[in-house]
Design brief:
Elements (H helix, E strand, L loop, with lengths): L5 E8 L6 H16 L4 E5 L7 H13 L4 E6 L7 H8 L4 E5 L14 H14 L5 E5 L5 H14 L2 E5 L13 H8 L2 E5 L1 H5 L5 H14 L7 H20 L4 E4 L4 H6 L4 H9 L4 E2 L4 H12 L6 E9 L4 E6 L15 E3 L9 E5 L3 E11 L2 E12 L8 E7 L3 H10 L6 E5 L3 H10 L3 E2 L1
Parallel strand pairs: 1-2, 1-3, 3-4, 4-5, 6-7, 6-8, 8-9, 13-16, 15-18
Antiparallel strand pairs: 10-11, 10-17, 11-16, 12-13, 14-15, 14-17, 15-16
């Protein structure tokens, strides 16, 4: 999945008591490199900044450009008042970017860039601004960029709740205004029938009907149920687009199957394979976590329960009822459509997920306050013994500690699981947004 494109501001700070000409050359090279990237739209203040009036101009320029974040390159050591002037005018998350020192020339320090980063960080921290991080490198911090993608995804997010949360799942409810105030997310509630009765493109219906037969063993379901899966895919896709949703949380039981004829699980599996974000049981926070993962380039996040723990094997089963994207199926497993719940109206995807490095994450709210849960592990081989979509995971810490961490902290019982590594980016996201990390 492609990473979310963001608009990045950049400015270079210098002082004429150091090798500002060398710093300017480095800056021009960096601007050229970043401008060539397809995942960035770059707004670069053209000239290095030495004095306060130019810092004011740079801040005004970046604000007018409406950037998502600002990389402040410490070309050389510089005056301490420059970053506060920029931050005052363009209050965006900052990367304080230090350069490795150049070879000495005539016994003088040429850049003293890291000291400039230290000065800026201290000024920001002591003035109450904590939405910054730093990097000393010749290349930009990719984890910071991914964190900014997550922030931008939430700031521009419109999440749809189809129905409500599942019956009795109080722990996945959200305070909508607190969520808006924290991350900029807006929430819109819709009726179940408005979604599954939404007019569908017949070409999409035919396309999804073909995918049902080509992607799954459908011997356990009827032609009528397969038709229902395809028509629901097309209706939800059209509804998603018409409402301009970034993600959707669905009250997938108990009423859905009775009202429409099947539960939405298999349709959600197909739609998520196309890159759309769907969370089960009305879980808005998990949908937003999945959206963050997707914004940073994680292919097809999967919503999972910590379902079973085997302390002897040091493994846990990450399972859900059958909504994982088809692309996550293990190569040696035959994916099926099954009807194991809702009185035969379940119609869920069924397969073991592939092996490989995985990470779990959850943005989780407690009375409107947010915290972030992160975990790493390895999905290991297992047989297809169950219905639903699932993976056996061996965590990097003892499974008993994982269970204890989840339950003692009262985390809701869903996580976003991905293949790959984004915990560093998510940790930076947490710092930039003042979100507690468990």
């Amino acid at each position: 999945m492609a990473k979310r494109k963001i608009k990045l501001g950049i400015v270079c700070l210098t002082r004429n008591t150091f090798d500002f000409k060398a710093a300017e050359d480095i800056y021009r090279g960096i601007v050229a490199t970043l401008s060539a990237r397809e995942d960035l739209e770059l707004s670069a203040y053209p000239d290095p900044v030495m004095e306060a009036d130019k810092a004011e101009e740079a801040g005004d320029f970046l604000l007018k450009e409406n950037v998502d974040a600002v990389a402040v390159l410490s070309g050389t050591f510089h005056l301490g008042g420059l970053v506060p002037e920029i931050k005052k005018r363009c209050d965006r998350p900052l990367l304080l970017w230090g350069l490795p020192e150049l070879p000495y020339n005539g016994g003088k320090i040429r850049l003293n860039s890291v000291c400039g980063v230290n000065l800026d960080a201290s000024n920001l921290y002591k003035s109450g601004h904590r939405d910054f991080t730093y990097k000393v490198s010749s290349a930009i911090d990719e984890d910071w960029l991914d964190a900014v993608r997550m922030i931008a995804a939430l700031k521009n997010c419109r999440v749809g709740v189809i129905g409500s949360r599942a019956h009795g799942f109080y722990n996945v409810g959200v305070d909508e205004l607190a969520l808006y105030g924290k991350y900029g997310v807006t929430v819109e509630y819709c009726e179940l029938a408005d979604a599954y009765n939404f007019p569908a493109d017949e070409k999409d219906v035919a396309l999804y009907r073909e995918r049902v037969d080509s992607l799954y063993d459908c011997s356990a379901v009827t032609d009528t149920q397969k038709d229902k899966v395809a028509s629901l895919c097309a209706s939800l896709k059209a509804f998603f687009a018409a409402k301009r949703f970034s993600a959707v949380a669905v009250r997938c039981w108990p009423e859905f199957a009775a009202g429409f004829g099947i539960a939405p699980c298999a349709s959600m599996s197909l739609l998520q394979n196309d890159g759309m974000i769907f969370a089960c049981e009305g879980d808005v926070d998990c949908a937003l976590t999945m959206l963050c993962h997707a914004a940073a380039g994680a292919p097809t996040p999967f919503m999972a329960d910590l379902s079973q723990v085997n302390e002897e094997e040091n493994t846990a089963l990450m399972w859900h009822c059958g909504v994982a994207p088809r692309s996550l199926c293990a190569a040696d497993c035959t994916p099926t459509l099954d009807t194991y719940f809702a009185g035969g109206k379940g119609v869920t995807a069924g397969f073991v997920m592939k092996t490989g490095r995985v990470e779990l994450a959850r943005l989780d709210s407690v009375n409107g306050n947010y915290r972030l849960y992160l975990e790493k592990g390895e999905a290991v081989p297992m047989e297809k013994l169950l219905t639903g979509t699932y993976a056996k995971v061996k965590f990097d810490r003892p499974a008993s500690e994982v269970t204890d961490r989840v339950i003692v902290n009262g985390l809701a019982h869903h996580v976003s699981m991905i293949y790959g590594s984004l915990s560093a980016a998510f940790t930076i996201f947490a710092k930039l947004t003042n979100t507690e990390v468990l």
